[in-house]
Amino acid sequence: MSKLYVGSEVGQLRRVLLNRPERALTHLTPSNCHELLFDDVLAVEAAGEEHDQFAQTLREQDVEVLLLHDLLEETLAVPEAKQWLLDTQISDYRYGPLFARDFRQYLSEMDNHHLAVVLLGGLANSEIKLDTQSMLPKMHRPLDFIIEPLPNHLFTRDTSCWVYGGVSLNPMMKPARQRETNHLRAIYRWHPTFANQEFVNYFGDEDLHYDNANIEGGDVLVIGKGAVLIGMSERTTPQGVENLAYNLFRSGQATEVIAIDLPKHRSCMHLDTVMTHMDVDTFSVYPEIMRKDLETWRLSIGKDNEMKVEQVPSYIHAIEQALGLDYLKIITTGGDSFEAEREQWNDANNVLTVKPGVVIGYERNVYTNEKYDKAGIQVLTIPGNELGRGRGGARCMSCPIERDGI
After folding, report:
1. Among residues 33, 161, 268, 396, which one is catalytic?
2. What average pLDDT does the chain have?
3. Can you tell me which residues form the catalytic site (predicted)?
4. Distance spanning both ends of the chain, measured CA to CA
5. Which residues does residue 65 pair with via DSSP β-bridges, in sequence order?
């Protein structure tokens, strides 16, 4: 059986988790999309077709594609998992004890396929016929969501991230995404692909409130050789980084974490929207954000197994040291400053490396793709006119579960 292990950002990708956008997108409207963290409403059919091309491109590169809906449906077939998910997602605190009890009963009678659809895609008050004494449904309007849709589940990168021989189940910053993590917790705990496998749970798998310790996978780059690069962005806090680093070191899976302080705004909501790893010695970088003077820290193991934190002069030098390289090749976003800003917004830097020097990116980013090509990086292009409106590219939309080291 193949191993759950992600040894780098650029080694041969072998298995990946995607989520095809479906019902959740049909619930996006101009009046709710911002609350659900989207800038725009997507054309659902077209987004699905673009996503199918992304999945197909991966399969053509010998990558096994797992789909979140299928994994969730198969996990719900395990009675204990189904019970846990209903108790967790339909909790007494979320809905009040009367409605929660009746609603759990209502959902438990659905077949697993339909239940997975609803948990991922949402359910409006008008769509349920439920006899309950609770005040709650009587106080809701017909189109109010009883289960909010999770359109951001499209970005499987963030909810959990595999780092060397283990996984972090990430406590997400925004309420619109926090329920996503429970789906992954159930899948990794009970789905046959994961249930009997050896791997470390670094963080986020306990039933508690993680307070300010937020971390999202878009900020975590497994650069290889025991090193991890993490951005402290709009969605990842220093508390989250220190917790994850502590557990990485304690389990012996990583030896150092390089943490970079990023500006806290939406255009660079995660490190991977402004910087990705494309070949052992090559990174794609948006220079407007990734300036050389960004504050950077190195976390490592000190004496007596205590965590040691030191500020370092430059993230580029820190990466060179971690990877044992004389110098890094940096490819900046293409075009003049207008084109570069536009292409960064459309995820030109957010490419997914499938093997050293071969990446998947949106075809619309012509200036940047041309620069990659000239630098010897092969770009496999996919359409992204609809998918790109969610502000995420090929790296955001993929969660590697198995990948070679460097």
Report:
1. 396
2. 92
3. 396 (amidino-cysteine intermediate)
4. 21
5. 16
